């Protein structure tokens, strides 16, 4: 069985990516990165629980360089977390500059060190407008970086299985695969209960609502985003 390194944030998209990788026949190796995000304690707890659920190893990398650089509401206390605007095409304050390039670099290093043949990331189409490092063109370019920057005999495929999917489609696929969403976390503001009004909460609640399912985690508010 081929191994795949999956970037596991603790959220629903990456959890679904773990189960999708397994459905495709990969042995998963979870990689979680603590980079100074405000809700890191909760995210790490969820990532660790997910790894336990699927019986896999969890690699944990701690770094604070993204937090030191700042300019994101996820890592910089001087930048406020905004309420959700699901129709906006503006880059939100939650954007962490070039984060996915940093995380994917760690994941590729982990994959090469552990003889894994793939790296999975759970980014999806509704991330496009707000997060430039979630676009298919970015992943295509990063695949070329992997091909150029690893040993000649190394072959690592960058898999972004949900890159063209909506959040609702991810929720539907995860429910089909039996993803334990009760052990995931998305909120940008809180570690319990989730606020229900930040971008991450809004997109997550909307996905479950449109999928006709109830999100199993607790919320301070549960607005109707359908």
Overview of the molecule:
The structure is a single chain. With 226 residues, the protein is an alpha/beta fold. It contains seven helices and five strands. The protein has helices spanning 12-23, 40-54, 65-69, 99-113, 136-149, 167-177, 199-210, and strands at 3-7, 27-34, 58-62, 118-120, 157-159. The protein has a five-stranded parallel beta sheet, sandwiched between helices.
Outline of this structure?
With 226 residues, the chain is of the alpha/beta class. 37% of the residues lie in helices and 11% in strands. It has a five-stranded parallel beta sheet, sandwiched between helices.
Can you lay out the helices and strands and say which pair or pack?
Elements: E1 3-7, H1 12-23, E2 27-34, H2 40-54, E3 58-62, H3 65-69, H4 99-113, E4 118-120, H5 136-149, E5 157-159, H6 167-177, H7 199-210
Parallel strand pairs: 1-2, 1-4, 2-3, 4-5
Helix pairs in contact: 1-6, 6-7
Poorly predicted tracts of residues: none
Q: Secondary-structure element order, as H and E?
A: EHEHEHHEHEHH
Please describe the biggest sheet, giving its number of strands, its sense, and whether it closes into a barrel.
5 strands, parallel
Overall number of structural domains: 1
Mean pLDDT: 95
Fraction of residues in helix: 25-40%
For the record, what CATH class applies? Alpha Beta
CATH topology name, in short, is Rossmann fold
| Structure classification | alpha/beta
CATH superfamily: HUPs
Number of strands: 5
Strand order in space, largest sheet: 3-2-1-4-5
- β content, as a range? 5-15%
- What is the approximate shape? globular
């Amino acid at each position: 069985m081929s191994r795949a390194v999956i970037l596991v944030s603790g959220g629903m998209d990456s959890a679904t990516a773990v189960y999708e990788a397994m459905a495709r026949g990969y042995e998963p190796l979870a990689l979680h990165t603590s980079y100074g995000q405000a809700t890191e304690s909760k995210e790490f707890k969820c990532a660790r629980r997910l790894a336990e659920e699927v019986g896999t190893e969890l690699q944990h990398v701690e770094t604070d360089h993204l937090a030191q650089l700042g300019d994101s509401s996820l890592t910089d206390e001087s930048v406020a977390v905004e309420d959700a605007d699901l129709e906006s095409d503006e880059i939100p304050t939650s954007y962490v500059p070039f984060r996915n390039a940093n995380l994917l670099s760690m994941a590729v290093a982990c994959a090469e060190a552990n003889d894994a043949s793939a790296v999975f990331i759970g980014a999806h189409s509704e991330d496009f407008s707000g997060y430039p490092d979630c676009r298919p063109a970015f992943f295509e370019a990063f695949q070329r970086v992997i091909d150029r920057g690893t040993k000649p005999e190394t072959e690592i495929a960058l898999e972004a299985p949900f890159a063209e999917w909506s959040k609702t489609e991810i929720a539907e696929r995860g429910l089909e695969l039996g993803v334990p969403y009760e052990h995931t976390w998305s909120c940008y503001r809180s570690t319990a209960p989730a606020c229900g009004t930040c971008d991450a909460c809004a997109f997550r609640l909307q996905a479950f609502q449109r999928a006709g399912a109830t999100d199993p985690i607790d919320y301070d508010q549960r607005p109707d985003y359908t």
